[in-house]
Amino acid sequence: MTAAGDIFERADLLVVGGRISAVGPGLQAPDGAVVVDAAGKTITPGVIDTHSHLGVYAAPGLNGHSDGNEASAPTTAHVRAEDGYWPQDPQIDRARAGGVTTAQILPGSANLIGGRSVTVRFLPDARSVDDVKFPGAPYGLKMACGENPKRVYGDKSGPKTRMGNLAGFRDAFQKAKEYERTWSKYRKDHGEWDKNKDKPAPAGKDGQPGKPPDEPQPPTRDFGLETLGLVMKGEILVHNHCYRADEMTQMLDLAATYGFKIRSFHHAVEAYKIADRLAAAGTAASVWADWWGFKAEAFDGILENAALLHAAGGRSIIHSDSPSGIQRLNQEAAKAMHAGRRMGVDISEDDALRWFTANAAWALGIDHEVGTLTPGKRADLVVWSGSPFSVYTRAEQVYIDGEPVYLRGELEPGTDFELGYNPGAAPPAPVSPVPSNMSAAN
Amino acid sequence: MSHILFVAVLALKSPAAPAAVTLVKGGDLHVGDGTVVEDATIIIRDGKFAAVGGPELTAPSNSGVTLVDARGKIITPGLVASDNQLGLVEIDLEGSTHDDARGGDHPVRAAYDASRAFNAESSLIQVQAIGGVTTAAVAPAGGLLSGQVAWVDLVHGDHRGALSKAGVAIDGNLGHSYGGSRAAALAKLHEVLTDAQVFRGRKDAYERAQTRPFAAHALDLQALQPALAGQIPLTLSADRASDILAALDLAKEYKLRLVIVGGSEAWKVAPELAAAKVPVVLQPTRNLPGSFDTLGARLDTAALLAAAGVPVVIAWLDDSHNLRNITQEAGIAVANGLPWAAALRAITLEPALAYGQGTTHGSVAVGKVANLVVWSGDPLELSSRPTDVLVRGRAIPMVSRQTLLRDRYRSLDKFGAAAPSTNSNARPRPDTGAAATTATTAAPPQK
């Protein structure tokens, strides 16, 4: 299953030098090629999660592992998730065993502007974040609407209300505009000075030679405002935690005012109420299949959210925001696909596969590199035991850049943290077949 | 549209009066105890299963019979959701909607009765019911002993009728739950259980204030009596293997019927659990070392326990909004080694047995409450859905607040297509230092 439109009943996939070379029936393996027999299995692109906190909220959930929310001020555009990412988080191993090859690691949602995200690959044996950063991936910026910032700061500095939230966003981007102006002025002044510095200074009133003009000094550098400036230039992609339809609309408006795009709303449990607006804005929605009701702004969640956005021509993404859910994004997409089909929305398996591969890659700005089984792209692959949309299917093999990173029963990387625990652990339970009279039809 | 919605809400709130007799015909019946009846005939009278058999069973044919056509489908007992706060919590982060715990510092709240707080009009009920869940073991939360579990059938809106039985278990929490140490929690449990035993024989003296001070209020000590008499189970949350062993010791000492909830490391002590016939209520997807109590968590715990002979109950132990996902949890347990029939049993008969309600619930058997689901396919598979759900013999409307929202927004044509931002004079613009920008939210008019 290519996530690029084609689903082959029986096909081969050739990887050369870590990239997909060819996909289709009847390929000839070159001499010396390693041949992996995947007969009866299903191959898809590696799973991509647009919303994860693995590594910044690592397991076990200790105080010492809490590195995901710089909850010291409501706007912390200067912090970066990569600086808090612990590559030894044992949750990463479970996610990889679920077929996940790439994830966006985001700061949490305590802050209006939480900082820069980092897109990582779940390669084993990483000793620092630099070993796993997705090559060339743009940064993301985490923003959060609604309840979380006002809950965290309501009794501190504020914001205390949604009014305060929006005011905080406006303030931040307004400051960034003004910061950009000071730099523009500096660059212009410095250019002028540079052009004229060797010319004789004009004489003063008293006829004496004038002093040469001082070299303009650069403004103080502010990493947070610089980050917001890059957002407004489109070089950093905005990922906006936002549940309600009304708030998402307001955020689209704010973004338009300051001349940037919101790449994806996250959680977006009410995306279905403004599917037309999201489609028109070209903003994706990263959603759960069925989470709802755990907070007031999540109360209107429905099973058909992803399907209705898809039907409106929008870009649906199934995300996890969960160290458990990330292990089964394929199953979450299956639930969302079937809910949509039941209400009459036309969703192909390739469409639903894109919800956790190609569309996610687009949201992260890496769709030219991964997300579909297309020649030229990186060979990030999952070999599943059956249909990825079945509850009974498990990822059996996972490859990044054509190299195996997980082979069930053979290569199951573990972190430093878990060494020495669970002495004498039982071997995995053998799997019994599902009764043949259980039809998985419709 | 509002008129249609009105009708739908009415239908949701007041289901039509039940026919005296309902007939479910055709389909493969998975009874819940492992047996399968092909081309089943199920006759329901006054909310109970009156007859269960194959095509040979003579079906009543008078005009008062409601027919449920299950041909080509799968029939199972109504699913049982164990250990949740359904009807006690509407929105997790809104404390004003919580009735799941008795407040205050005292860790012993055995008299706290969840059935008194249950809201039969909770929006969560139909969401679970149309997903196949017909019964819930509603448990209080918090403290060392949280209170009494209510056994509830999911009859939406029926405040007087939804409760099947109050006080079917006493729920509590082991581990790091009290006094800053698991040892302190165990000591407190010993103290309270001993006091409850003393209290049993000295109630008159207590009334005359002639007893020593007890570790809990008399009502709480009284509430523990059915558990001490072995009439109802004590359901204790425990994950670490050492906590589970401590619970087994406690149960042995006080002759308690024990049920372990959570059980992340139960596989490490499976032989002892099997020998003591102690069921484990677990959520199969909980495979993360999220704390030092769950470092041994794994995906195949259900399979390992079942193979060792431990009764396995599969539950959704996260927030109660998605209890419907016990089918997916059961399917994942199958993918990780639990036999399919055991997985179905783990969400039907096993929970009923664990909570002592096996005589009325958990399987499709004559005399039991007629809770039943007709599925479009394999009930554990993601593609399947219930086509008919019967609670106490009544086919429930397949409607929830979620389906009503879906239908309201199914088409967006009736809404104004344009966002407010198309009117650039509507509100002052911040000074962006740039020429006025065009909002992107202005959707073109929809056809």
From TrEMBL, chain A:
CDD domains: Met_dep_hydrolase_C (cd01309). Residues 190-224, 418-442 are annotated as: Disordered. Residues 190-200 have a biased composition (Basic and acidic residues). Pfam families: Amidohydro_1 (PF01979). Residues 306-386 form the Amidohydrolase-related domain. Coiled coil: none annotated. This is Amidohydrolase. It comes from Nannocystis bainbridge.
TrEMBL record, chain B:
Pfam families: Amidohydro_1 (PF01979). Residues 434-447 have a biased composition (Low complexity). Keywords: Signal. Residues 416-447 are annotated as: Disordered. Transmembrane segments: none annotated. The keyword 4Fe-4S does not apply. InterPro entries: Amidohydro-rel, Metal-dep_hydrolase_composite, Metal_Hydrolase, Metallo-dep_Hydrolase. This is Amidohydrolase family protein. Residues 325-379 form the Amidohydrolase-related domain. The keyword Signal applies. Residues 1-19 form the signal peptide. It comes from Nannocystis bainbridge. It comes from the Bacteria.
